[in-house]
Structures are given as structure tokens and as C-alpha cells.
Amino acid sequence: MSSIITNSKVEIDAAGLPYRELNQQIRSAVSIGAKHITLRNVAGQRYIGTNLYEAADRKALDELEIEILGTPGNDLGMFLDGPSITVYGNVMDGTGNTMNAGRIVVHGRAGDITGFSARGGEIFIRDDAGYRTGIHMKEFGSMRPIVVIGGTTQDFLGEYMAGGLIIILGLTLKPGELHYFSHVGTGMHGGAILVRGGLADYQLGNGVGVVNLEEKDRDSLLKYVELYGTYFGVDVAQVNVDQFVKLAPLSKRPYKQLYAY
Amino acid sequence: MKDLQRLNNPYCDDKVLCSCAIFGMMDSTGKVFSGEPVFRAMINMQERGNGLGAGFALYGIYPEHQDYYALHIMFTNRDCRHDTERFLETAFQVERSEEVPTRKTAGISGEPLVYRYFVRPKPQGTNFVNDDDFVVQSSLKINSELDGAFVVSSGKNMGVFKGVGYPEQIAEYFRLDDYKAYIWTAHSRFPTNSQAWWGGAHPFCMLDWSVVHNGELSSYGANRAFLETIGYKCTLFTDTEVMSYAVDLIMRRQKLPPEIFAKIVAPPLWEEIDRMSEDEKELHTALRSVYGGLLMNGPFSVVIANNNQMIALTDRIRLRPLTAATRGNFLYFSSEEASIRLVSPELDNVWTPMGGMPVVGKIGSLPKPDDSRKRNTSAARPMAEVAR
Question: In chain A, what residues touch B41 (CB-CB under 8 Å)?
């Protein structure tokens, strides 16, 4: 095993490792007590952070930190259940796919379907994200996934969204520039999207409307904007709660006409 | 099939999740380079393919014969080679012919003979067509009438090398380490609803226009019907063939630019067209009326190249991945950003193009990210600014 252990810190050189071997090495490290794992030279290995539940108990997983240098592959943090992942680089498609708990912080941009079907946990993307961010996110009880995007995203943001919260900061837009997305919230029937930056009503999908911010939305914004600033060392003084609009579904069952029999 | 199962699925999963990989790399100064980074990028995306097809298009490889069409032809039996050569000798001046060099490669089997011919059409009688059209017609004739012979590529100073195997196996088999090119495009295949065979591997090529494709064209039937009314013959049992003929019709024969090609095969939705200026609306409505049969439905991302350019495009709602990047004089397209980063850790620009918006890199000019990562909203009239 190409890892070095000191004081429960582990380093793994991922260069040339197939994803199964890399993930096996991560599991082995966690099972012998690693609390902080650094992965170097990551180049497209998939499913990093997945399937650690048998390697350690819940408390240990909640405290586990995984640091990634390079470009992790699709489905980073898939089914993630507790650990924190920090990526120094860009991520590809399906980041946080069906994640349950934990945090993914990306010092870069994201590809498509970030937060795909997430059930809980937090995802922070410093720059822009691709298509279908937050597709089919859901929530139940105290489980509520949060996706924070520093810049803008492409089309079908919040598609089929059933719960959770997406916050779009618009920090990469030029003054007066509209967000890049259209068809926002197509098929959305739960949760909310908070957007700062240029937006025209044709960018919204059918069945999604602009509603007033509630107190809990303001609280969420204060909390997550500050966290964004802290994680990425970005001055967020320019970001004001009053600059956001809230997009929410107009119906809990948008396709009832289509699928009724 | 048992061997294949063992090869692709050593962990005996219930289901193997794969999809094709595409990659393109171009030096916009036109200088040739070795394919080593391309091979590494493709190996890095191995789980996107399953060893049932791979191929490469190389531009700038035959400078000593650059005035001749380089016909790469695949033969599944010796008789069809004789028939084809007899046909070539009647229609063309054959400057040179040779077997494409190969080496014995582990994992490669059932390989057909592949020959290359450097040819020039003979002066013709009364039915005059230009040389390019003559080569296209001859290729279609060989593909549809000479049993067992398939024209793999037919451009000048370029060639396609493809077959059944993983990309690194195909590269080794065709000794691609011996070549240098200024554009390389590459494909690794996971056949979904068409069969795996040597001629069905990508790239697909007409003259010097090549296409590598990830996804499926569910509009294949409608596209094929449209193309057959204007003389194209679909013979290769693969949906990508219609994309290749659409490229030939629109960009080569009708000389329309890639931006218009994109509006034909991946047009904006009608609701977007409704918001456009009158001029743009007229253009898009006309394109959809004239070329409705070439609208390509279903998920796709493609890399298209010819001697002067490399173009990337996804379907209009972007159901397949594609990343574009530039570094210095180099342009990269890939199914996965990680493969680009692997061969060029530092990048000047890296972006996700919008569905239906082409990324066009030409010899002499690299694409600007803002031309494809957002829709051109200048013509669109915001109905109301809702942001406070």
C-alpha cells in the first residue's frame, strides 16, 4: 500500500490507480483509524468517499476528512455519509450523488448533475457548475441537503427537485449579466432555490415562481454565505440577503394532469 | 462472449456502467505531434468503453502525398480486395497502394485486411462531378456494392484507424506511435443498440471530415430517410453514420459554417426561437423548415474534425458530457476533464459548452469560452427583470 501513516494522517498517491484500488486503499486506511486522508495525483477515479460505512463507526466517519489534489472522477462522494471532502481542483459529473450526510467543498468548478438526488449534507462549489445542478434533491424530517454555488450554472437547475436548498451567489457574473441557466426547476415540486444576480422570468421553468423570502431563508443565507466565505477565503461583504430572490414550486404535483388516469 | 465478460467485469457486478469516451487534441499552429498524450487520456477513460470498438482520426500524416486522396479501405476477405482494386483502377489514378502497417497485439482478433491507396480521380467524360463528390460517390459505391469492402477514410493528408478493441490496443495494432499529426480525435466504444464490428467503430469519415460520437441518435430513422432522399446510402449499421452524412451535406457540400450546422442538428427550442429578433427568428424557422429531417434527437456529444478545424457539440439539452479546454496553442475536447488534466495539468481555459452550442477551433484560432458556455442572450428580450 502506497500510503504513509503518521498521527492518523494518511497520504495516498493515486497516480495510475484504478478507482477500485484507490477506494479500497481509502477503506483500509479508515479501518485502521485514519482521520485525515490526503489523496495526491487524483485523475478521474470515480466514487471517492463511497462505501465507508463498514470501515468505521458513525462518530469516526463524521470526523473523517478527505483532501483531494487533482481532478476526482464522476460520482465524487456518492452515498457519502458523514465525512468531509475538500477538493483542490475541479470536479466532474454527479458530485454528491445521493449523499446522505457530510460535506463536499470544491475549490474550483463542477460538471453536470452536482448534488444529484442528495438526501442530506452540504456541497459548496467555489465557481460555476454545469447542467442539472441539484436534480432530484429531496428532504425528509431534519434531513435537508444544501448546495451552494459561487457563480452560475447551466440549464435545468433544480430539475425535478423535491426538497433541500440551492443557493446561487452569482459571483462570477459580470455586472448586468444574466445567469446562464434556463428551464430552472422544470418538474420541481419541493425545496427552494435562492438566486442572486441577473434573472429574467423566461429563465424559469413551468410551474416555478418567485416567492418572498421567509425568515428561515434569511437565516440559511446568512449561515451559508458566511461559510462559503470562510471555506474559500472569499470576501462576501458584497453579498447581501436582500439581493436574493426565492424560486419555489407552484405545485407539489406538477405533472398530475400528465400522469393521472 | 464469456471472455468478454471476464475482461470487462472482473468483479462480477450485476451491471457494468459504461458509456463511450471521446477525446480530441489539436495544435492550432498546425504543427504535428505524437499521439502519446491522446493514448494516455483514452486509457484514463477506460471504464467508459468495453473493448468493443475504438479508433483515431489523424490529420497531417501523409504530407508526401498531400495532393492525393488517401483511401483507407477495410477488407473482410481477399476476393473483395481484388474487386475493389479493379474498380479503383478504372476510376482513379492510383499513385501508391500498400497494406496499412500493423503489429501483432494481444487482445486483437478477427482483424480485417486494411489497405491504403493514394489516388486521384481520372479525368471524366460527360457526367462531370468535382473530385470531392466523385470520391464520396465512389466510397458509397464500394460500401454498398462491393461485399466485404468498407472505406474507412478518404481525405487528403489524413487517415482513420479503427477496429474492435480498447483504444490502446487499436493504437498499438496500427502502430500509431509511428505517426505524428496536428489533430488527433479518438473514441472508445460501448455499443448499445448497434453491433460491434470493425467498420462500425468510430471515427466515421467522409473525405477529410471525421466524427466521433458518444450517445445515441434516436432520430436515426428520420435522419436516414431524409439523407436517402438525397442519395446517401446507410450501410454501416450504426446511428453515427447519419451524423457523418449530415456533416458531409451541410458543411462540405453546402459549405455552411459549424454554427449553422449546430442550429440544424441541435436547434434551439421553439420557445427560445420565439424570443429572438426578427432576423434570427427567420433564420431559425427557415433552417427548421428546410432541414427538419436532420434534427438529431437523443443524447449525443460529438467531436468533428477536418484538415482545418476541430469542432465539439452536444445535443440541445446536453444529455452527454463534454469538456473543452485550451492551453497555449492546444485545444482539447474530452468526455472527462480529468483526462485533459492528466496530459495538461495547467490549462488556460476549461469550460462546459451549452447544449447545441458548438465549440469551434480552427488552425490559426482557438475558441473563446464565452462563445459556447452561455447562450447568446443579446438577441433575447428579457420579459421582465425579476432580480431586485
Answer: none
pLDDT of residue B128: 73
The residues, any chain, with a CB within 8 Å of residue A167's CB and separated by 6 or more, are A146, A147, A148, A149, A193, A194, A220, A221, A224, A225, A244
Mark yes or no for CB contact B321/A111 under 8 Å. Answer: yes
Question: Using DSSP, how many helices (H) and how many strands (E) does chain B show?
Answer: 11, 18
Which residue on chain A is closest to B336 by alpha carbon?
Answer: A92
State residue B100's pLDDT score: 98
Tens of pLDDT, residue by residue over B334-347, are 999 999 999 999 99
Looking up cell 499529426, which residue turns up? B181
A60 and A121 part of one domain: no
A177 with A96, same domain: the answer is yes
Quick: pLDDT tens for A48-90: 999 998 899 999 999 999 999 999 999 999 999 999 999 999 9
Rounded to whole angstroms, the Cα distance separating A234 from A224 reads 13
B338 touches chain A (CB under 8 A): yes
Q: Is some CB atom of chain B closer than 8 A to the CB atom of A21?
A: no
B380–A201 C-beta distance less than 8 A: no
A61 and A160 co-located in one domain: no
Q: What is the pTM of this model?
A: 0.93
Query: CB distance from A77 to chain B under 8 Å?
Result: no
Vertex B105, ends B100 and B106: CA angle to 5°? Answer: 160
Q: Which of B44, B374, B377 sits opposite A44 (nearest CB)?
A: B44
Domain boundary pick from A18, A44, A73: A73
Q: Cell 489533430: give the residue.
A: B183
Instruction: Give the closest of A19, A71, A200 to B337, CB-based.
Output: A71
User: Does residue B374 sit at the A interface (CB-CB below 8 Å)?
Assistant: yes
The reply to whether A245 touches chain B by the CB within 8 Å rule is yes
- Among the three residues A58, A73, A88, which one is the final residue of a domain in this structure? A73
**What is the complex's ipTM, to 2 decimals?**
0.94
Tell me which residues of B are annotated as active site.
Answer: 20
A59 and A93 inside one domain: no
Query: What pLDDT is stored for residue B50 in this prediction?
Result: 86
Map out the domains of chain B as residue ranges.
22-59+164-371
Mind listing the pLDDT tens digit for each residue in A107-146?
999 999 999 999 999 999 999 999 999 999 999 999 999 9
Assign B32 to helix, strand or coil.
Answer: coil
- Identity of the residue in B321, B354, B375 whose CB atom sits nearest the CB atom of A93: B321
CATH code where residue A134 lies: 2.160.20.60
Q: Which domain holds residue A43?
A: 1-73
B236 backbone dihedrals φ, ψ, rounded to 5°: -105, 10
- Report how far residue B331's alpha carbon sits from residue B154's, in angstroms, rounded to the nearest whole number: 24
Q: Are residues A182 and A218 in the same domain?
A: yes
Dihedrals phi, psi of A37, to nearest 5 degrees: -115, 125
pLDDT of residue B123: 84
Q: Which of A51-55, A229-233, A250-254 has the lowest mean pLDDT?
A: A250-254
Please state which of the four CATH numbers 2.20.25.10, 3.60.20.10, 3.30.950.30, 3.40.50.2300 is assigned to the domain occupying B22-59+164-371: 3.60.20.10
| Total tally of structural domains belonging to chain A | 2
Q: Are A64 and A35 in contact (CB under 8 A)?
A: yes
Query: Does the pLDDT of residue B8 top 90, yes or no?
Result: no
